[in-house]
Design brief:
about 0% strand; mainly alpha; about 100 residues
Length: about 100
C-alpha cells in the first residue's frame, strides 16, 4: 500500500506541475488581455473598451489563479500522499 501511495504522490506532483505550467504558458501568451489593455489605454474613458478589458482581465486572473492552484495541489497533494505512504510503511515495519 505504501508503494501505491508514493506512486500516486509522484503522479499527482507531475500532473499538477504539468497543468500549472500549461496555465502559466497561457497567462504569458494571453493576447486577448494584451490587446484589450492596449485598446483601453489608447481610448481611456471609453466604456466599450473598458468593459472589454474587464472581461479579458477576468479570464487572465482565472488563468493565473488556476496556475497557482495547480502548483499548490502538486506540492501539497504530492507531499501529503508521500507522507501517508511513508507513515504506512513505518506501521508495516513495526507490525512485522
Amino acid at each position: 500500500m505504501s508503494t501505491y501511495l508514493k506512486a500516486m504522490a509522484v503522479v499527482v506532483a507531475i500532473a499538477g506541475t504539468l497543468v500549472g505550467s500549461a496555465f502559466l504558458l497561457r497567462v504569458l501568451r494571453d493576447e486577448a488581455y494584451a490587446q484589450a489593455a492596449m485598446l483601453r489605454e489608447r481610448n481611456s474613458g471609453n466604456l466599450l473598451f473598458e468593459s472589454e478589458f474587464r472581461v479579458a482581465q477576468a479570464e487572465h486572473v482565472f488563468l493565473a489563479y488556476s496556475s497557482i492552484g495547480s502548483f499548490l495541489i502538486a506540492l501539497i497533494g504530492g507531499s501529503l500522499l508521500w507522507g501517508v505512504g511513508e507513515l504506512h510503511a513505518k506501521l508495516d515495519r513495526r507490525a512485522s
